[in-house]
Amino acid sequence: MVQHGLRFNDEMELNGAFNDTAPPPFSWNSWFEGSFQDSLKSSIKADVGFRALLTRSHNQLNYSLHRKSNLDGWVQGKEGVLFEKSYIETLSGQDFLGVDSLLSIGRGLEQVNDTLRQLGIDLLVVLAPGKGHFHQNLIPDYFEVDTSKTTNFDLVQQQLALYQIPTINCRSWFDNMKVTSRYPLFPKNGVHWSQYAEFIVMDSIISTLEILTERRLPTLGVNRHEVNDFARFFDQDIEDGMNLLFDIPDDSLAYPGFTIEDSTNGSSPTVLTISDSFWWDMFNLGFSNSIFNEGQFWYYCAAVYPESNEKATTVWDQNYRASIERNDAIVLICTDANLHRFPFGLIKQMRYYYDMPYLP
Questions:
Q1: What single-letter DSSP state applies at residue 149?
Q2: Comparing C-alpha atoms, which of 62, 17, 76, 73 is closest to residue 337?
């Protein structure tokens, strides 16, 4: 109670989203209805003194003794590697959309690509690797992964090739780099590719866009690698969500020191990125702004950044056609575990705003 009232000891905040714990406004109506008392009780309970310490201690005990966590959907694999369960389930086709739906997506993307070409806009799809596929040998045996079943990745990859949509297949590329890479391409305690891997991917995206658009982009240069035995940025996002008291040991991870040199004299293409969370760290590194000529980031083709940093903005809050046509290229990024949501509503949006006919 003393800590709740005086806050004489600063606590490490909990990671994640939590409901507002501010005391409810008083009114006689809410008092007599009993809703004020219930809300006040919830507020006090949520804001109890040492709440973060108590929560982290509870989580740590569960993890240390039972390898359990309050974080939904996580799995600890062999060698202590953490996975998000959906990246394992997609390997056995548990999220498979069905052949008809995936063939329809292929036809829809061909429509989108054709429409964009008529507007002078190039489309590039980046199939980001999933940690479950990359570290399949470290998945717990009780999952009994059956890779003989057809998956979303199988058919999406096939459809992109069939309709000749420019694609960077990072999954097979990462498989080839797994043994030769100097530093980890996936962190032990995170969901996404490592920051080291991001720079490798970004270099390939830049090169491919230069070929597609026949224009130069700013040069991304790496001049050093700072190697740490503790993860930074997004490289421990699973662990962060577990809200433990003590850190889980990390692998040695490399963090590039980089420069961005723009010798294009203002002629570099403007690039829109539509992606799941695999673009977040690269967006935070300034790639959309400095390399993609102040291009927007449409998170799941819905929330618009950087605009949403100031005020929540969606693609429907702006002039859609103008927001598309200001670009010279669009990069569409999706990891294997999100292919059941691919391409995040882009086909429906383009059909609506550009009167593209519906193809079943």
A1: S
A2: 73
Q: Pairing relation of β-strands 122-128 and 329-335?
A: parallel
313 Cβ partners below 8 Å, 6+ apart?
303, 304, 307
Query: What span, in angstroms and rounded, lies between the C-alpha atoms of 230 and 241?
Result: 16
Report the alpha-carbon distance of residue 6 to residue 8 in Å, rounded.
5
Distance linking the first and last C-alpha atoms of the chain: 62
Is pLDDT at 318 greater than 80 in this prediction? Answer: yes
Q: CA nearest 125: which of 175, 89, 174, 161?
A: 161
Structure-model confidence comparison of residues 263 and 119, the more confident one: 119
Sign (positive/negative) of CA torsion 239, 242, 246, 248? negative
Question: Which pLDDT belongs to residue 229?
Answer: 86
Contact 148, 354 (CB under 8 A): no
Q: How many residues does the chain have?
A: 360
Q: What residues contact residue 37 under an 8 Å CB cut-off, 6+ apart?
A: 31
Residue with tokens 């996002």: 237
Is residue 145 within 8 A of residue 135, CB to CB? The reply is no
Q: Is residue 333 helix, strand or coil? A: strand
Residue 303 has pLDDT above 90, yes or no: yes
Q: Give the confidence band of 2 by pLDDT, cuts at 50, 70, 90.
A: very low
| pLDDT at 3 (0 to 100) | 45
Task: Return the H-helix or E-strand segment holding 239.
Answer: helix 237-242
**Distance of alpha carbon 199 from alpha carbon 197, whole angstroms:** 5
SS3 59: helix
Q: Give the C-alpha distances (Å, rounded to integers) separating 189 from 169, 193, 238, 335.
A: 24, 11, 6, 18
